Amino acid sequence: EKRKLSEIIEQDGPEKFKEIENQVNADIHVKEEEQNVSELMKQALPQDFVKYGLIPEFVGRVPVSVSLDLLDEDALVRVLTEPKSAIIKQYKKLFQLDGVDLEFEDEAVHEIAHRSFMRNTGARGLRSIVENVLMDTMFTLPSDETVEKCIITKAVVDGQAAPELVHGEPQLPSKKGQTKKSSRKNSGEIA
Fold first, then answer.
1. For residue 14, how many C-alpha atoms fall within 13 Å in the half-sphere facing its CB?
2. HEC string of the chain?
3. Nearest residue to 130 via CA among 70, 186, 81, 188
4. CA 66, 70, 74, 80 torsion-angle sign
5. Less packed terminus of the chain by CB within 10 Å, N or C?
6. Predicted TM-score (pTM) of this structure
7. Is 112 left (phi over 0), alpha (psi -120 to 50) or beta?
8. Does 17 or 109 have the greater pLDDT score?
9. Confidence band (pLDDT; 50, 70, 90) for 182?
10. What average pLDDT does this structure show over 109-133?
């Protein structure tokens, strides 16, 4: 039989109310542990924001609250590869300026996303991971004119191997003293 809270307080007295309150708080605590933060934020009410410390005038004038879901590994892979200004596309363009084709194996891209997910850094952490993987290579490639392609594997991301470099014929200087690598024109893409 369900009763109103006010009826329970009147009939059973304050001691029974404390018992019920403790039971409800215990149930809420268990449920909070089961739900992640984004799920809890979806249930936030304007009164919760006021209790948190926002002034009621602000909460009243901005009545919309939005929560965002955490990115999973598949979403992080999409962030790395799909947008027009995706991080991997930016690094490919950067390497093309030196005449080197940069290639990431699928396993390497998934490992980068996995590392970001495990660190709880989300999409913001992807750039630092890619940068750490490519740092040494970015500084050594411009001095080696024979490198045509650089392949990043899962082992490279794990730090167990160096990037695979595909060498070709050394580039001959052109009439202006530039190498063929540096004379490539910009295709209008933004890195």
1. 0
2. CCCCHHHHHHHHHHHHHHHHHHHHHHHHHHHHHHCCHHHHHHCCCHHHHHHHCCCHHHHHHCCCCCCCCCCCHHHHHHHHHCCCCCHHHHHHHHHHCCCCEEEECHHHHHHHHHHHHHHCCCCHHHHHHHHHHHHHHHHHHHHCCCEEEEEECHHHHHCCCCCEEEECCCCCECCCCCECCCCCCCCCCCC
3. 81
4. positive
5. N
6. 0.61
7. alpha
8. 109
9. very low
10. 92
* Residue 88 to residue 191: CA distance in whole angstroms: 10
Sign of dihedral through CA atoms 6, 10, 11, 12?
positive
Give CA–CA dist 191/189, Å, rounded: 6
Tokens of 44: 């936030």
Q: What are 191's two structure tokens?
A: 């890195």
